[in-house]
Structure prediction request, 859 residues.
Amino acid sequence: MSDTLPLSIQNNRRMEKWIRFEPDRTVRLAVGKVELGQGNVTALAQIAADELDVDLTRISVLSGDTEAAPDEGQTTSSQSIEVSGRSVRLVSAELRARVLDRLARRLNCSPTELSIDDGVFRRGDASTGHDYWNFAASEDFTDEIAGTATPKSHEAYRYVGKPLPRRDLPAKVTGAAFIHDMVRPDMLHARMLRQPCRGARLAALDEAALRRGERGEFRIVRVGDLVAFVGSDETVVQRAASVAPLHAKWDNVAPITTEQQEAAWLVGQPSHDRVLGTEAPPATANVMSASYSRPYIAHASIAPSCALAEYRNGHLSVWSHTQGVYPLRAALANVLGLSQEAITVRHAHGAGCYGHNGADDVAVDAAVIASQIPDHCIRVQWRREEEFGFEPVGPAMHVSLRAALDDAGKPQEWTAEIWSATHVQRPSSGGNMLTHEALPTPPPDPRPTDPPEANGGGGTRNAFVLYDVPVKRVLHHLVLRAPVRTSALRGLGALPNVFAIECFVDELAERAGIDPVQYRLSMLSDIRARRLIENLAQRCDWGSRGGAGTGRGLGLGWARYKNRAAYAAVAAEVEVDQEVKLRRIWCAADAGLVINPDGARNQLEGGIVQAASMVLKEQVRMEGDGITSVDWDSYPILRFSEVPEIDTEIIHAPDLPTLGMGECTFGPTAAAIGNAVAHALGARIRDMPFTRERIEAALLR
Amino acid sequence: MAIELIVNGRAVQISVPGTAPLLDVLRNQLDLKGARYGCGLEQCGSCMVLLDGEPIYACSREVGTAAGGRITTIEGLGTAERPHPLQQAFLDEQAGQCGYCLSGIIMRAKALLDHNPSPTRDDIAGALDKNLCRCGAHPRILRAVEKAAAMLREGKGA
Prediction:
């Protein structure tokens, strides 16, 4: 039985770890997934309230705390509702059933005669005089979770399925709400001088020059090649850090050339190669091929990363906007040589991260400084150029597609060949903490791996086409060394792969002389996918789509995220002159049972805007010491006047299991824009971002 | 030398060098955390506050140059219990994801609505164009400002 339980329950079998009924008649739900701006914590509370039959207002949620909340690993991969939500539902349903059973035995009645009204047990129309809180000390709350209780059917839900407001938003529109705003006793501010790259050695730091003209007090903490400026006045340490790079000389800096910032550079680099799918040699007759690419992409969180750490009486306490408090605790133990029991990590709200950004690294910065200055709270705030320059970036990808076609122009064989550096270098998956590399005993070279296909893959995420093609294969070249550190960015390989697949399908349709929607439907037997495409085609008035090359274009794309999570289809209408203007976007999504439709819509639309920004504008630039796109001028993102109207429809499917949907619009949006721009221009751009130069080049071809 | 400011209607004196960024003074001397550090470069708008009714970037504004001025921060609009119509409209529309950019955006929107009570969608987008949102909550934010404008025109709230 336990192998069918969600991982979150398998790893946290004690009921009390999840749910406690408190003396003040509230219910404390503890979860390991954390709020990153997705609204997941509100949705998890909705699920618990329904299964327990208590008012939602009674439920407080503790999320991300190594002392008190379950270990649910990382908050990634659209798993909060699919996995944690399923776990909370099973745990709540089991607690409800256990307590009802106990009461029924005591009253000598059947549990079916009992009902619950806001935590109070009733028998028929009469109160039993009992409630959950009477039983809070019973073993029902401490015993191991079996995971065998039957949750309610969706018709019985009172909160699930309702667009309820986010719990965290009021604080965020009125004042202090973030880790950046925390104030602790004996707090000192710190800023970092960063090692330009792994292996660089600090040859000289001109402290006298650094202190000249600076009126305030600060101390310099140096551990190996890690340098921090620490003091009680934030302004003073910020100024010291901002000029410090001018007064530091580094040896052993490996220079980067601008050629290395392009996806095309990856092809031919040393790589770990695999063949997935059919082993048979590829067909050679009637083959069509094309290559697509995405460059390195920044998470570009609106807030540079921040962390607090204090070392008191041999115990290290860390506050972090990490995606996973337990994995961060393990990484801290490894870097500092402490036992995990000597460390507590608590989650505090940060800005959206969209994957593995500087959150964990800054926490290690703070912890190392705290170990040097005990009995103080060390608050490290990264600078803007530090976040852009030193966070791990989303890897560039080069994707070559080849299709062997039949006489009707339909693919009979489909090969995707992918070149990409690793998509995950979290410390829990073989990566190194930035801080660790600057310490006197740096860790060995990171071991390049990619998430296994069982977890959705990294570079191979969404690489297998979902169309009815008899023979499919993926050739994956995991490039061993990228010019800069790469790690997880929303959707991993899904955006470049879906962009490539869905653009290529339009190219194949054009070659076959078939309308792109008809062409897709003619080789797609997945009913849920067909329904989305048909819905979308109707809403965007696909039938009136004219010829190509008028400067105005309509295109679409779809995917099922990770080939097993939520479905999304997106259509985009664009106008292209010297630049691409987004006129309108339509989206249809199917995520099965949706817990909070407004939160879901927010995620779908946010994914659309962010993907559009990446397709049209974004590329991490590199040269010399490292990343050169270190501000918002050199790394522009989509602005208010550039964001179109978005018309989203969520397909009602409450009988079907919830599917993670936080990343599902990413690939389809990129594809829809790619196809719309090709329709507008009558010429295709296959490389992101769609700059003015690429538009001109496409028109000249 | 003490610098005098009127912050959210209250006269305050602070002893910091005149070159200190207003943002640091608000956050660390006055414990007003609503204005947020995002870039320090006047590029993202997370730190936006009003000085004598005009939106300014607190991150790069030297406090000495604001001496004697009237500063309004997000804390000066309303509280979670008694929100300003702009804050209420953002909650009604659930206009945000991570929320880090919102206080700067709301302050810029406040300045817009003070000058133009009936802005078009394009007016709002234009006014907010120097404020960045990375989560992609833009359509909701535009709707929220439109809604707040309507609420204010109808006299609901401040």
Observations:
- The radius of gyration of chain A is 27 Å.
